[in-house]
Amino acid sequence: MAQRTIRIRGARTHNLKNLDLDIPRGRLVVFVGVSGSGKSSLVFDTIAAEAGHQLNETFPPFARNRLPKWTRPETDEIEGLSPVVVIDQRRIGGNARSTVGTITDAWTYLRLLFSRLSSPHVGESNHFSFNDPAGMCPACSGLGEVVVSAVDRFLDLDRSLAEGAILLPGFGNGGYWYSRYADIGSFSPDTPLRDWTEAERQALLYGGEHAARLGTRPPADYEGIVPRFERIYLRTSDDLSDRKRETIARFTRSETCPECRGDRLNEASRTATVLGRTIGELARLEITELHGLLDGVTDPAVAPVVTALRNRLRAMITIGLGYLHLGRATTTLSGGESQRIKTVKHLGSSLVEMLYVFDEPTVGLHPHDIDSMTALLRELRDKGNTVLVVEHDPAVMAIADQIVEIGPGAGTGGGELVFQGTFAELGAAGTATATALGGRPPARTRPRQASGTITVANAARNNLRNLTVDIPCEVLTVLTGVAGSGKSSLAAELVAQHGAIVIDQKPVSTNRRSTPVTYTGIAAAVRRLFAEHSGLPAGRFSANSDGACPDCRGLGVRYTDLAFLDGQETVCETCQGRRFTEEVLRHRVAGLSIADIDDLTVADALDRLPAERIRQALRHLERVGLGYLRLGQPLTTLSGGECQRLKIARELRDTAEPTRYVLDEPTTGLHPRDIATLLDVLDQLVDRHHTVLVIEHNVDVIRHADWLIDLGPGPGRHGGRILYEGPVAGITDTVTAAALHGEPA
Ligand code: ADP
Ligand code: ADP
Ligand code: ZN
Ligand code: ZN
């Protein structure tokens, strides 16, 4: 009989403190705790990592090299795992061939339908695949787009050839190609291009007939700069260097393929019809509409295919994605949309006894849409799977079979099991989560006074219905509406029209050496502090100086290059990872050596380091609730929410001029307790006369707004209108109003 629990003993990943835990299998378990308490360290970096690692071990080495790499967690023991599927908010890859249809397999069924029923009859289903040579449009190879020269960017008409009028690399005066254009005697090298005749400019660009028409002047073999650019950059099969790629990005643009007009298929396949519609037309219909249309397919021979297709479509509608269309490229989906699409994909799977691990599945969902997500989580469990969810939303906690809280605090103050039991039992547990659920941050009773407005005019991006909206200045505006109603599109228009700064959750750095120390720029001040206390020159306390350990050159680790295996990183034996020579390490400030500084949390450093300049830089981090970060923690390990708060900290410190800020769902990854901190930070921005626009679903944030703009009523083409603009207290009759008043919509 299969083991009924996942048994974890002595977990020590990141901040976990020798954690022991038994998790029931076949249940829905929700992990809660303040931000930075160790939920992800436990669920993703311990449980999922070990499950992934064990699964990989079952494959032969050559296959293992192609599988995702898992870092084995630090634990004494983990038992009772099964194959794991991680469903996080990472966007679905950068592959232009992936669409909502292909990723959910709905396209496979639609292709089958066309291969059986379409007229004129074309035969096999791969003829309707744009990823198969039998089906793809020959002009764009099934991408639906072609790359063409952006000729308008090639020339600077105000300059002469000698002054570098041809902006392409190598064509400027003295460049590799220059003499072939300037010195052939056909074009005047010193006349600005604007003063040439149109015929001359065409000849310069295209050569060939254009050049011939100018008379005898250009040599017969003269090649225009456009054909030459396309030959060298676009029609080459060579591997492209980074520089060539940059040039291509600058001097080309993507256009809808002129042959298939974006349908991606060859002529026979894109003209065949079912129910009088082509497959391309069906791919552009909203999923809701496509689902309804399939009622019209009554041929019993295809009944199983139609049922399978409708099931897929229904799952997408249930999860609030009925406004998408199958042809939508997955690269354009938001993080939340990507996560929901991945969930649909797995619901279709008939595997059982799997381990599913979710990272905040309610991100991007309006309170109105959350019920459909919780229904999907239950459905996965009821198929016989174990479902583990990291989540802050009480609606998800409420449907859990069991709740596990990690805490009590963040970072070194967390990493322990503080509660395990039902949602009802949590209420009396007195933990940070129980407390936060009991008392919500106060709603704003009196809105702050705006200082003028800025107008976003005629916004028509994506689904927006030519909106003109006033955004009040120097207050907090919250933009609400169901997923897909057009919030991000409107925010993007604000940015495009008025140049607002977007404070998003993208990584602040991809460099493993970036840390809070480098980010806040306190490194020099720290070295100076040690210099003052020791009498040594400040440079000795730099890891790039002769104060550094000679064997690892200040890295603390050494790399072993193992030819065809992955390189190995081991702690330097000479300095034990402490990076400096014994002599340097002997000098202390407030009892700390230079190597100890990296282990301090921001809050510790504020308590212990006696230098006002350092404390000033760090205070902003504490202000945004990041007091628990270690000074030496690589910024590549921060979550999206942490990155966002770090960026706010930088803005608080650096920006004096009144500025416009846009934040998209800043409560992502935040525990209810931390939402109060976030609201406080947003208020600090407003206090400094900044204008803040926040896209949010979180009710506490909405209640804190000075001004509310509610979009809707539905997603996609059912949305894009303004339902309400005004103070929060005045909103009625929308799903947002219902959520605010805690009523079912
Ligand atoms: P939560 O998911 O509860 O927000 P995490 O598990 O992400 O918390 O983080 C717990 C602690 O471990 C935090 O102090 C965080 O900064 C730290 N941490 C997270 N990832 C890493 C890592 N890769 N290396 C070192 N520390 C990390
Ligand atoms: P919200 O932010 O309210 O969730 P969005 O502004 O992201 O809504 O989307 C509004 C509509 O525009 C939706 O129908 C969405 O599918 C569509 N949309 C968003 N981005 C793109 C894009 N890059 N290409 C095509 N359609 C898009
Ligand atoms: Zn094409
Ligand atoms: Zn060393």
Automatic annotation (TrEMBL):
GO BP annotations, alphabetical order: DNA repair
Location of the protein in the cell: Cytoplasm
Ranges where the ABC transporter domain occurs: 445-738
CDD domains: ABC_UvrA_I (cd03270)
Family matches, as Pfam families: ABC_tran
Domain of life according to the entry: Bacteria
Keyword DNA-binding part of the UniProt annotation: yes
Keyword terms, alphabetized: ATP-binding, Cytoplasm, DNA damage, DNA excision, DNA repair, DNA-binding, Excision nuclease, Nucleotide-binding, Repeat
Main location: cytoplasm
GO cellular component: cytoplasm
Keyword Iron carried by entry: no
Molecular function GO terms recorded: ATP binding; ATP hydrolysis activity; DNA binding; nuclease activity
Sequence similarity: Belongs to the ABC transporter superfamily. UvrA family.
Record-given protein name: UvrABC system protein A
Species name: Prauserella shujinwangii
